[in-house]
Design goal:
Number of helices: 1
Number of strands: 4
Shape: extended
Radius of gyration: 14 Å
Distance between the termini: 25 Å
Strand order of the largest sheet: 1-2
Order of helices and strands: EEHEE
Oligomer: single chain
Largest sheet: 2 strands, antiparallel
Length: about 70
Amino acid sequence: MTVSEENLSPSEDTRRAELSTHDDDTLGACLYLTPEDLRDLDVDPETADAIEFHVDDTGRLVVDAIDTEGDR
C-alpha cells in the first residue's frame, strides 16, 4: 500500500518524530503507527504479525503487512 500525498498532509492528529543523531550524523526517525493508521494503510492489526516498509524512488512510503508465523 502506498500512502497518498493527501494522507501525508498535516492535520490536527499529526505527530512529530525528531531526527536522531550521533556525533552530528543523522541516524533516522522512528514512526509510530496507531491501529487506525495501519487500517488506513490496508494492514489489519488484528491479523498482521509485522509490517515491512520503505520509501520508494518517488519519495512515497510503501507499507506491506507480513505474516511471520511461517518463520517460526
